[in-house]
Design goal:
Helices cover about 5% and strands about 25% of the residues. Among the domains are: about 55 residues, SH3 type barrels (Roll), CATH 2.30.30.40; about 30 residues, no CATH class. It contains one helix and eleven strands, in the order ββββββββββαβ. The chain is mainly β.
Length: about 160
């Protein structure tokens, strides 16, 4: 029987048969091609279409942040920050978080408002999350901005 993807296709339909993901016809178990295996593990070639299973996410990826401002230590146990430095958050308590620098390996406390989650808009210098419309207009009209200066903020009307 097979499916239209196999060499011996015919029009017979089997009840409770496995369905081909390509052509949506039933597959006869006797003609189903076997995938090669080695020591009990299925071998796959990179030329076959990828399956729709997302890769597993690392729980450590959720705790990665980037410094958006420099911070000089003021207390014992604080961790100095440099803009763009990546850190792993170890503990979130209030406004001060315990973090480890991925650059230096040092561990210490950091102010939570000096960092943003990695790979988000919050780490971009042109993104102002809680800036109101009037304040945004004032910032854009300051003398230091050149023609074409811009910023992006959250909408006040869709909150």
């Amino acid at each position: 029987m097979g499916c239209c993807c196999s060499f011996d296709y015919d029009d017979d339909w089997a009840i409770d048969a496995e369905i081909c993901e390509v052509c949506h016809y039933p597959i006869d178990p006797a003609t189903k091609p076997k995938r090669p295996s080695l020591n009990g593990y299925e071998l796959r070639t990179p030329l076959l279409a990828a399956e729709e299973i997302p890769p597993p996410g690392s729980p450590l990826q959720d705790k990665l942040v980037v410094a958006v401002y420099d911070y000089e230590t003021t207390h014992e146990g604080d961790l100095p920050l440099r803009t763009g430095e990546q850190l792993r958050i170890l503990e979130e308590t209030g406004e001060w978080w315990k973090a480890q620098s991925l650059t230096t390996g040092q561990v210490g406390n950091i102010p939570c408002n000096f960092v943003a989650k990695l790979n988000t808009l919050e780490q971009e210098p042109w993104f102002f999350k809680a800036l109101g419309r009037k304040d945004a207009e004032r910032r854009l009209l300051t003398a230091g901005n050149t023609h074409g200066a811009f910023l992006i903020r959250e909408s006040e009307s869709t909150k």
